[in-house]
Amino acid sequence: QVQLVESGGGLVQPGGSLRLSCAASGRTFSNYRMGWFRQAPGKEREFVAAIRWIGTSAYNEDIADSVKGRFSISGVNAQNTVYLQMNSLKPEDTAVYYCGADRSGSTWPNRLGFDYWGQGTQVTVSS
């Protein structure tokens, strides 16, 4: 079983920045992907960004068009940790942000089929 723990959410003013962290523990895969999704009140969960590890330190990235240029994703494989740097935040970025993880397949990008989830962290962008 994989456990995911997110941190770094909070209240920020429009135009501000936050960095979310997600640490995985328990059973981890030799080849896996980790990603971020978000869910705003009354809306479905949507993909934000993901990485697929390649070897010990390199990874592929995939970022949703809605946040491209403002958000970036990074990770440290040895620490089983992925980060989401969020800049130029807007009120519409307000949501609960969830970390997901799963095995990597041969297809990339792949925004579906994440089986393991964290508890979520609230991000509120408001003045």
Proportion in β-strands? over 45%
Secondary structure class reads mainly beta
Spatial gap, N to C terminus: 40 Å
Mean pLDDT: 93
Strand count = 11
Helix count equals 0
Element-level helix/strand string: EEEEEEEEEEE
Overview of this structure, please?
By secondary structure, the chain is mainly β. The chain contains no helices and eleven strands. The strands form two sheets. Strands 2, 4, 5, 6, 9, 10 and 11 form a seven-stranded mixed sheet that branches. Strands 1-3-8-7 form a four-stranded antiparallel sheet, with no helix packed on it. The chain is globular. The N and C termini lie far apart (40 Å). The model has no long low-confidence stretch (mean pLDDT 93).
Q: Could you write a compact summary of the structure shown?
A:
This protein has 127 residues and is an all-beta fold.
From the structure above, extract its key features.
0% helix, mainly beta, 127 residues, four-stranded antiparallel sheet, seven-stranded mixed sheet
